[in-house]
Specification:
The protein is 44% helix and 10% strand. The chain has 17 helices and ten strands. The strands form three sheets. The protein has a six-stranded antiparallel sheet with strand order 3-4-1-6-10-9, covered by helices on one side. It has a two-stranded antiparallel sheet with strand order 2-5. Strands 7-8 form a two-stranded antiparallel sheet. α6 crosses α14, α7 packs across α16 and α13 packs across α16. The longest helix is centred in the C-terminal third of the chain and has 22 residues. The radius of gyration is 21 Å and the shape is globular.
Length: 411
């Protein structure tokens, strides 16, 4: 999260108004939309036997100087040559977070090079990246243990097994878009949510887990939605369409239960049910600071999360180079206000169908119809991304294939 220059990280928050003011300053950085980023996450497998567990030490050796400090406290945690940062998630999933770029072509070129570099490092250790949103072969198993992850597991276990499935078995694709000018913020915020269910359905890749079919098109999203709606449910919905994004996000943050309370010891597990608003009201021995609020925000995982920019979190990992397709579709849909408004009009009737998208994918006829229409809009807007001719043609063909799949399902 981008920190506010106006407040020190240790500023004590005395009430909800001061917390709301801090959130308003840091969570929506408005201005002309110019940058796009992408975060790509994969499960990691033994090349010879994908069912074989891959432990922390093997990952540390494979990643070498790129290892994050969560698996090697002495590592320099070097980024990849084209700016991507490498992290390792609690189940051993590896993630590249790109540097934001002013053009989609530059973003795809740089991220492709970073993926190739990471793949070569893993290949030398007999490891390969997965290609779906849920580990198809292995059951959930912890690989990285930190006080944060231990507290997360403890809190999630109170509600059932979905938290462990999410932590240890899922892999997602995140697209990061600028929030936009102040007068366009509400529209872009709403549209980022509204197009979520049809795009989740169209790009679902997580129908298998631990060696069997799950009964879900996206078992990854099913796990997220089952954890706790106060933490992973959408902030915007059609029945709350008139809400100001800043006010809606502030209410969501303050009402969400704490997931971790950092301390000097290894146990960061919070008391059950204590929200950040409760903490502000004196529920814990010390008052929270701006840094505590920022950390709390990092433990919230809605489908769209404001981090200064809009972090779109609802897509499954795609196989191979297919990650470029949802990236291009979203970039095209948000490239100009008119297209964004059209996308909003297409998607709003199905904007509430998150569970149907996760369960049925394009087998849900209303979602398939909306997805096909969104692909049509993306194809119309694609020339505005100024992709090189070869990349434009490759992307256009891929979107047309997705559009044809959606068209077949909605008949």
């Amino acid at each position: 999260m981008v920190m506010s220059p106006e407040l020190d990280r240790t500023t004590v928050l005395g009430d909800e108004a001061s917390a709301a003011g801090h959130l308003a300053r840091i969570c929506f950085k408005t201005g002309p939309p110019t940058l796009t980023g992408v975060e790509l996450e994969w499960t990691v497998h033994d090349a010879a036997d994908p069912t074989r567990p891959v432990d922390r030490e093997r990952l540390r050796r494979a990643l070498g100087r790129h290892s994050p400090v969560t698996i090697d406290p002495t590592s320099p945690a070097d980024g990849l040559r084209h700016g991507g940062a490498v992290t390792v998630e609690p189940g051993g999933q590896v993630e590249i977070s790109s540097a934001p770029r002013p053009s989609i072509a530059a973003l795809i070129l740089a991220t492709t090079a970073d993926i190739a570099e990471l793949s070569a490092v893993l290949d030398a250790a007999g490891l390969v990246l997965g290609g779906s949103g849920m580990d198809p072969w292995r059951a959930p198993r912890p690989v990285v243990e930190t006080p944060r992850y231990q507290a997360m597991r403890c809190v999630f276990d109170r509600r059932g097994p979905a938290g462990r499935a999410m932590m240890y078995s899922t892999a997602g694709l995140q697209v990061c878009l600028d929030a936009g000018e102040p007068e366009r913020l509400a529209e872009r915020w709403a549209a980022a949510h509204a197009v979520g269910p049809p795009l989740l359905a169209a790009f679902a890749t997580a129908d298998r887990h631990a060696g069997r079919r799950t009964g879900w098109a996206s078992a990854r999203m099913a796990a997220w939605l089952a954890i706790d709606p106060a933490r992973t449910g959408p902030v915007w919905s059609p029945d709350r369409a008139d809400h100001d994004p800043v006010a809606a996000w502030t209410g969501y943050v303050l009402a969400a239960p704490l997931l971790c309370v950092r301390g000097d010891g290894p146990d960061w597990t919070p008391p059950p049910g204590v929200t950040f608003a409760d903490w502000l009201a004196g529920a814990l021995p010390r008052p929270p600071t701006t840094d505590d609020l920022d950390y709390h925000v990092s433990t919230l995982f809605p489908p769209v999360r404001p981090r200064g920019y809009l972090e779109i979190r609802y897509l499954d990992t795609q196989p191979g180079r297919e990650w470029t397709v949802p990236l291009a579709v979203l970039a095209a849909l948000f490239a100009d206000p008119a297209t964004t408004r059209e996308a909003m009009a297409v998607a709003t009737p199905v904007a509430h169908r998150w569970h149907a998208a996760a369960r049925h994918g394009l087998g849900d006829r209303p979602l398939a119809t909306a997805a096909a229409a969104l692909f049509d809009l993306a194809l119309t807007a694609l020339p505005g991304l100024d992709l090189p001719a070869g990349l434009h043609e490759e992307t256009s063909r891929a979107i047309r294939r997705r559009r044809a799949a959606a068209e077949r399902r909605h008949r």
